[in-house]
């Protein structure tokens, strides 16, 4: 059974280009660990009907066959070399793990 990872991503003002640099490395790495990026959404102001939390800059939905595959992605050495870009650009993230019902 696949696991699903949803991330709400909040970036620092003016750090969009640095965020895009990190994503250009991180997103292709998903497939290396049997994952699929199902959605990458950058919602505009009109996309929010209601909200009780800060509006995210981007929303990602990915799936992996196993939690172990996801953990391998998190430990990927090539990805780790570029974590400084993530740390520079991202204010915070909310990561939600789930299963298909």
Explain this structure.
By secondary structure, this protein is of the alpha+beta class. It has a single domain (3-99), classed as Alpha-Beta Plaits (2-Layer Sandwich), CATH 3.30.70. The chain is built from four helices and four strands. The chain has helices at residues 16-32, 67-74, 77-80, 83-89, and strands at residues 3-11, 36-41, 58-64, 90-99. It has a four-stranded antiparallel sheet. It is globular, with a radius of gyration of 14 Å. The model has no long low-confidence stretch (mean pLDDT 95).
Name the features.
single chain, alpha+beta, Alpha-Beta Plaits, 4 helices
Distance between the termini: 10 Å
Number of DSSP E strands = 4
The structural domain count equals: 1
Q: Please bin the fraction of helical residues.
A: 25-40%
* Major sheet: arrangement of strands: 2-3-1-4
Radius of gyration, whole Å: 14 Å
Q: Which CATH class is shown?
A: Alpha Beta
Structure annotation, total helices: 4
User: What class, by secondary structure content?
Assistant: alpha+beta
CATH architecture: 2-Layer Sandwich
What portion of the residues fall into strands of 2 or more residues?
25-35%
- Mean pLDDT score, rounded? 95
Major sheet characteristics? 4 strands, antiparallel
The SSE string, one letter per element, is EHEEHHHE
Overall 3D form: globular
Poorly predicted residue ranges: none
* CATH topology value: Alpha-Beta Plaits
């Amino acid at each position: 059974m696949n696991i699903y990872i949803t991330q709400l991503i909040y970036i620092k003002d003016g750090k969009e280009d640095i965020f895009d640099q990190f994503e250009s490395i991180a997103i292709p790495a998903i497939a290396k660990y049997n994952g699929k990026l199902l959605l990458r959404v950058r919602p505009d102001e009109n996309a929010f009907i209601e909200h009780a939390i800060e509006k995210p800059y981007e929303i990602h939905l990915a799936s992996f066959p196993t939690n172990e595959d996801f953990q391998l992605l998190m430990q990927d050495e090539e990805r780790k070399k570029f974590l400084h870009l993530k740390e520079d650009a991202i204010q915070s993230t909310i990561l939600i793990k789930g299963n298909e019902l």
